Amino acid sequence: MSATSDKLVERYLKHLDVELDDLPRARRREIVDDISGHIAERAGLQAETEADVRNILEGLGDPAEIATDARERFEVSPHPQSARSEPGWVEIGALIMLLVGGLVLPVIGWVIGVVLLWTSNAWNTRDKIIGTIFVPGGLGLPLFLGTLALTGSGGGGCVQFGEVGSQPAMNTCTGQGTSTTDVLGIVALVALLLAPIVTTAYLAVRMRRASAAAIA
């Protein structure tokens, strides 16, 4: 198939995957793979023009209808997320407060973000769980821990003891050098700092995909 035909198929399968979001992962993967194989088989038997590919996809039916049939077949009740709408202030507020709410209003700000996340219909349950556990407090937690670490490690330096009789002056230094524990601590802080940023980006992408599927 041509590049344009490949994109049509890819978009169709992504739309189908979004519509099947409330099915178990194994069932969803099974249906998408089955439809993908059927498309590849039909495309191999027919002329590989863009029009032929469009006819194949139209013959398969709307992804929403396929998802409805799948729910009935596997006796899965659609959840409220199926009625998704355009992202609004709830979704934008959730993304902002999950990331920086803990900095604006310590603890309470992040909790507000979690409430908005679970109130919205833009994400499924799996997305909401990911948004909640990575990372509690958002950017507030790693910055708080980093501040504690810097405060606790301060005060290093050298102290000079004067001469006693014929003994020369002696320097005693503390807090110098970098241990393995320090390196691991820095790596952990960086991971904690990146986790909420990556999670917020993931939720934003999932929100856009769900919105695009609802409009299509």
Description:
The chain has 216 residues and is mostly helical. The protein contains nine helices and two strands; from the N terminus they run ααααααααββα. The chain has helices at 3-19, 25-45, 50-60, 63-73, 89-104, 108-119, 125-133, 140-152, 180-215, and strands spanning 157-161, 170-174. Strands 1-2 form a two-stranded antiparallel sheet. Strand 1 (157-161) and strand 2 (170-174) form a beta hairpin. Helix 1 packs parallel to helix 3 (50-60), helix 1 packs across helix 4 (63-73) and helix 8 (140-152) runs antiparallel to helix 9 (180-215). The longest helix has 36 residues, at 180-215. It is elongated. The mean pLDDT is 80.
Number of strands: 2
Number of helical segments?
9
What's the order of the H and E elements?
Answer: HHHHHHHHEEH
What spatial form do the alpha-carbon principal axes imply? elongated
Radius of gyration: 27 Å
Distance between the termini: 23 Å
Largest sheet: 2 strands, antiparallel
Strand sequence of the main sheet, in spatial order? 1-2
Instruction: Tell me the fraction of residues in β-strands, as a range.
Output: under 5%
Q: Estimate the helix proportion, in percent.
A: 55-70%
Query: Pairing-aware structural class of the strands and helices?
Result: mainly alpha
Mean pLDDT: 80
Low-confidence stretches: none
Topology overview:
Elements: H1 3-19, H2 25-45, H3 50-60, H4 63-73, H5 89-104, H6 108-119, H7 125-133, H8 140-152, E1 157-161, E2 170-174, H9 180-215
Antiparallel strand pairs: 1-2
Helix pairs in contact: 1-2, 1-3, 1-4, 2-3, 5-6, 5-9, 8-9
